[in-house]
Amino acid sequence: MAYILYSVCLVSLIVGTVLYLTRAHWVPYMPNRIQDAISGLSYTRVPTTFMGDVESGFTSADFDLSSNIVEGDSRGGLDQTAKREVQRLMKLRGINFDEARRVYMEQRFKKNGIGADGVPRDPKFVSFS
């Protein structure tokens, strides 16, 4: 009986270790709610200034924060919630900042009933162009 219990514990330990070490490969294929639960287990500090944002990779040629730093902008940097989500996307999917921003905005649009083209999906919506 003790041998069976020892074997089950050893197999569980090996499988758990393999899953942990290869999580970067299989987590992106899981549903978002499970990804959120897994990513919530590890804490990564999000910067609170524009300089911190640049140092953490939250900038690009298309989204340049250098003018905010040069001009001495006293605000607290970018939105904390958005930064956490963009950082999570960058880590899990292995994508750059611009791509993570695009994916984040598409997710926000979809959640709020807006199409990828920026037009609301509400059937009562009327637009005059």
TrEMBL record:
<keyword id="KW-0732">Signal</keyword>
<dbReference type="Pfam" id="PF09435">
    <property type="entry name" value="DUF2015"/>
</dbReference>
<dbReference type="InterPro" id="IPR018559">
    <property type="entry name" value="DUF2015"/>
</dbReference>
<comment type="similarity">
    <text>Belongs to the UPF0357 family.</text>
</comment>
<protein>
    <submittedName>
        <fullName>Uncharacterized protein</fullName>
    </submittedName>
</protein>
